[in-house]
Amino acid sequence: MPVTFKVDEKSLENKYKEFQKVTHPDKFSMASEIEKEASSVSSSTINQAYQALRCPVDRAKYMLSLHGVNALEEDSSFEDPALMMEMFELRERIDNIDHSSPREAEGLLNELSDDMNQLCDEIEESFQAENLKASTRAAVKLKYISKAMDELRRVIEKASS
To answer: Does residue 160 surpass a pLDDT of 90?
Structure first.
C-alpha cells in the first residue's frame, strides 16, 4: 500500500472499526491474561493510529517523523521569515474580528478551511516529490492555520451563545 498524505476518511473509519472489532478487549474477557494484554495493547495502538491519521496536522507530523523531521514538535524551531510574517498577519486579522458577531469569524474560518485543503494538496504533492523542505513548510503552516481555525470556532461559539 503506497504511503500518501491524503486519506479517505470514510475508508479510514471503516478500517478502524474493522480492526477494533477484532482486537477490542471486550472480545477477550474470557481469554488468558496474555491474550487480554495483547488485545489491550493492540486496541490502544489502533486508537492512536486512527487519531493521528484523522487529523491532518498529526498525520503530517507522523509522516515527517518517518523522515527524521520534527518541525511540528512544540520545542522545535522553523526558520522561515515569510511564513512567520504571514502567520503574524493572520493573528492580527483574528485579533481584529468583532467578537460579538460570528459573521466575520465564519467568513475567515471558511477562508482558512479552503487554505487547509490547499495545504493538504501541497503536502501530498511535496511528499510524492520527496521534497521534505516543502512538506515541512506546508505542515508548519497547516499547524498554524489549524490553531487559528480552532480559535475562530471558539469565537463563533461564544458569539452564538
So the answer is: no
